[in-house]
Amino acid sequence: MTAVRARDWPKVDRSLLVLVGVLAALVLANGVIDQGFLSAAQLRNTLLVTVPLALIAGGQTLCMLTGGIDLSVAMTATAAAYVTGVRAADGTALAILEGLAVGLVIGLVNGVAIAVFRVNALIMTLGMSAILTGLLTVGSQTFLKGATRMPEFVRELGGGTIVGPIPWNLLVWLLLGGLLIFGLRRTGLGRLIYAIGGNRRAARLAGVRVASVEVAVYVACALLAAVAGILIGGRGGSVDLQLAGSYLLPSVAAAVIGGTSILGGSGGYTGTILGALILSVLDTMLNVLNVDEAVKQVLYGTIVLVLAWVYIRTSRARTGDR
Amino acid sequence: MQATTMAATGSMARRQAWTGATLLAFLLLVAVKAQSGGFDSFEIQTMVTSTLALGYLTLAQGVIVIGGGIDLSVGAQMVLFNCLSARLMEGRSFGTCLLIAAGATLAGALLGALTGLVIARSGVPDIIVTLATGFVWSGLALFVLPTPGGGTALEFQTLVLGSGTEFWPPLVGLAVPGLIIWYVLRRTSAGLGIYALGSDRQAAFLAGVPALRAQVTAYAIGGLLCALGGLAATAFTGGGDPRATAGMTATLTSVAAVVLGGIALTGGVGGLLGPVVAVWSLYLIPAIMLARGVDPAYGEAVKGVVIVLVVLIGGLLRRNGRKT
Amino acid sequence: MGETREALRTRAVAKRYGPVVALRSVDLSVRPGEIHALLGANGAGKSTLVKILTGVLAPDSGEIEVGGRPVAFRSPADARRHGVTPVFQDPALLPDLTVAENLRLTGTGAADVLERLREMDLTPPDFRTPAGELPLPLLRMLDLARALAHRPALLVLDEITAALPSDYAERVFAVMRRTREAGGSVLFITHRLLEVQEVCDRATVLRDGRDVDTHVVAEGGEDRIVAAMLGDKAVGAVPAAGSTAARPTGEKLLEVTDLGDGGRLKDVSFALHAGEVLGVVALEGQGQDELFELLAGDRRAASGEVAVRGRRLAGRHPREAVRHGVALVPSDRQEALLPMRSVRENLALPLSGRRWGPIRLNEERRKVGAVIERLEIDTRAQDEVRRLSGGNQQKVAIGRWLVGGFDVLLCFDLTRGIDVGTKHQIYALLRSIAEDGRGVLMFTSELREVPMVCDRALVMYGGRVAGELPAAEADEGMLLNAAHGLTRAEEVG
């Protein structure tokens, strides 16, 4: 019996290194194809689209770690942004708070229905998405009528530049992303998220209030989506109902590529960040190549599938499972 | 052990009650609709034709979910076959159109089988695989038909949709494949294998069900039905539309309708009638609201609330059933 | 022996699950026209062997011959084609399909099954009924009839009688005898030694993954079987603690009064004192599972009450029990561990459950480190608990509560399927917990643990406490007989 000390940090996952490799290859390829890609302006643009995706995918990662999924993130983001835009007259701070409150309420409803009333997460969030679509469609003509012009501060935050290639929204993401990584690794709640995703029954028997953890997760996910929505709205300046629709599937894809299991219990935010970066660099590359939208989608789908497949292969090889 | 058997017993009775309740809810909606805006053969025809494509997709999703899987690409497959057939059928004769339709159906089954094979062989969860293939199919649709367009023969439209206020052709068009698949599912050992797989993978294995074959069959049937959905869309709109959003909405509705129609998302339980009736019910809700002078935009929200509430109440009933 | 073609023959069949060895090496032969019993204590490897013989699992090494020809089954269907047809412990009919559909699924003729049911003197049910709506005993008989309809050369019956009333069991025996007369063979797995005496020709006993004895039943008798199952392992390491301990004198930690779950468990009362290890002994399904679930707060009681140090538990959630210092270590490690997480996270789970905020790393490192050292947990594969050996996994499951703190430890068949060395470490640990002034309530299916570890033992029968005795007086052989439902169950009480 030699070292009986438990390690503070798990070993770096080999599969993550594969992802870093894929990302590096994509960036290099991009740099070769397009001399301008490594310029400050292009990098800024890439980061600008990555940040909201990384935020939404972060929430998605939390849900997936518990064995759930949130298909209402796109509509949550849109709704939060819409409310912030319409309420801009209330003053910037209040408008943002109102947008975040929308996220909070959506998250609570999702979380309580899923955790307490045991509605299937897929169905619940699907239904929530439909509800929000309907409410916003009607609301835009009635109780939320008015111009959606994002406050100046939000526009700067969502699309402005600090210096060189660094957009302001990166700052928001550094803050929240750092919080997520820390939260998942170094807090009791983070451990419990993994615990209920890995073995719900064991967590319960160990005295964990599984439902509370789940509610917290769906609230956090909706809040992250709300922040992302406000940032996306800020980038464009105004908000329409299709604002964040295109982020839904990539948010799941980024988490999956990053090695978070849709069955729960394993994965993490670091992988998701890499997944989000890979997806947006890939997107930029296909745009630069001026590839047909058709080919773009085919490639996109194929790459997501192949990466997920490779990930499962490598993690199986590591643990010796068949 | 005793408890599991009793729970299973309850679930069987409850499922039948569930289908009954779905039918009842539908009839109620029809009655309300009849009262507030009329429900004549024209209305029926509108209902059946405008939900025909969705009906096929729901059947597809139903078969796959019964087999213990899920397919988030059914809408994209529909869009693909819509675009493919609209492009090929444009300006062709009725006979050629029929040949194209037959070819598309076959191709749909092959695509579905391929999806099933990838899921079974890769070990990647079905949600992820079909999410990814969804991108691929909608990309291919754009490739085939970059902008909305294409066309089909008028006779083909009449064949699928009926003429005037005739509502029998689309109803038959939905019922015949539905009944054939129902027969395959409940009367052949290959079909029963799909139920067995969804019901209890381990027990199915012990009973000697070839899991790979059952899974591939389920997805192949699904693909075939998605192709039919695409053809129905072509007939309904007289052309093709490659935009992916319509496909995604259709996918989500198919999942909701399957659940409302009494198929358990965990697999192995449920029939095909309930989901189709659920599709019609979901169509009637906004129609009634419109007739009653309510902003139909609320329809989406009400649909969402209905879906969530029905699933929630179903879950609560199941929980109470287990306690007693 | 060499001339007759065995219906079934295995040579050196072995199987391991990751680091856990389930079968070391088993040689088994079943002759044509023979009813052969396969016996062994829990964890001896019976179920793994049955799975291998019926094509559910593939062996790691070793050979299997059926009718003299080597075979390698790819699936249960493949095994069936070779004439080996099993009836498993759990009903294999799919509850959502009707009986007729179930038969179609396996390509079994309905007429054939009807015929077999009539042979068994049973009224056949309506085949249009969903299987899930039929009573359990009838389902088992349908399973058997379906197996017979395939005209197997070797019928494998895995504890089929465990859930059957005696008149049904008699019919199963009749079927077995008819099969033998027709020249077929039966491999019969059971826990009930009486049944072995009644119908079996020969018996093979497994222990720790090996075949330790094969003999003609009429010549051996139950004593020989019991001896083979127990083995002659030295019982060193831990002194027979129970014999030295006096009657419990500490305060009442856990007091159970008239506890019932509205089902199997009825009016159970007992008390667990500080400084005591209290054993629970019972046959399978005598209410011990329910008792432990209730005590752990996993279910609400229908009647009676549970009090910890005089405070009543409502049984709303395991959290309540944990807060009052009652912790459960389940028998199934799948119910205890987070398989993909590290040793450290698994051990620290109770701490995380208590505080959502930042982890106090120093405190955690200290507590976890101390427990790893105390239990000598092998940390070489610490990044994922599923890669640890069974014994180390069980240590993690117990160690969690040493990290989290507790007054009463509920241990449910803790040592099932783990190696002797680890078992003894666990015994010593339980004793030291008791010496700290805490209490342990342990159910065990391995009866010799009772005199080794416990101070007192409760015998449960039919959902009630049928008796109580000082562990020192609990003779292992007597407990074993009682646990196998042979005789003298009342004398124990």
From TrEMBL, chain A:
Statement: the UniProt record of this protein carries the keyword Transmembrane helix: yes
Transmembrane stretches, start-end: 47-65, 95-117, 124-144, 164-184, 205-232, 244-264, 271-288, 294-312
InterPro entries: ABC_transp_permease (IPR001851)
Chief location: membrane
Cell location: Cell membrane
Pfam (any one): BPD_transp_2
Membrane topology of this protein: Multi-pass membrane protein
GO cellular component, one term: plasma membrane
The entry's keywords: Cell membrane, Membrane, Transmembrane, Transmembrane helix
An MF annotation (GO) of this entry: transmembrane transporter activity
UniProt keyword annotation of Iron-sulfur present: no
Protein known as: ABC transporter permease
Record organism: Planotetraspora kaengkrachanensis
Automatic annotation (TrEMBL), chain B:
GO function terms (MF aspect): transmembrane transporter activity
Membrane-spanning ranges: 98-120, 127-147, 167-185, 216-238, 244-265, 272-291, 297-317
Main localization category: membrane
A GO cellular-component term linked to this record: plasma membrane
Alphabetical list of InterPro entries matching this protein: ABC_transp_permease (IPR001851)
One Pfam family here: BPD_transp_2
Presence of keyword Aminoacyl-tRNA synthetase: no
Subcellular location: Cell membrane
Domain of life per record: Bacteria
PANTHER family, per the entry: ABC TRANSPORTER PERMEASE PROTEIN YPHD-RELATED-RELATED, BRANCHED-CHAIN AMINO ACID TRANSPORT SYSTEM, PERMEASE PROTEIN
Official protein name in the record: Sugar ABC transporter permease
Native species: Planotetraspora kaengkrachanensis
TrEMBL record, chain C:
Listed GO MF terms: ATP binding; ATP hydrolysis activity
Pfam families assigned: ABC_tran
Signal peptide: none
InterPro entries referenced in this protein's UniProt entry, alphabetically: AAA+_ATPase, ABC_carbohydrate_import_ATPase, ABC_transporter-like_ATP-bd, ABC_transporter-like_CS, P-loop_NTPase
Keyword Zinc: no
Keywords: ATP-binding, Cell membrane, Membrane, Nucleotide-binding, Repeat, Sugar transport, Translocase, Transport
Boundaries of every ABC transporter domain copy: 8-233, 248-487
CDD domains: ABC_Carb_Monos_I, ABC_Carb_Monos_II
PANTHER family linked to this entry: CARBOHYDRATE TRANSPORT ATP-BINDING PROTEIN MG119-RELATED, D-ALLOSE IMPORT ATP-BINDING PROTEIN ALSA-RELATED
Name used for this protein in its record: ABC transporter ATP-binding protein
Species of provenance: Planotetraspora kaengkrachanensis
Record lineage: Bacteria, Bacillati, Actinomycetota, Actinomycetes, Streptosporangiales
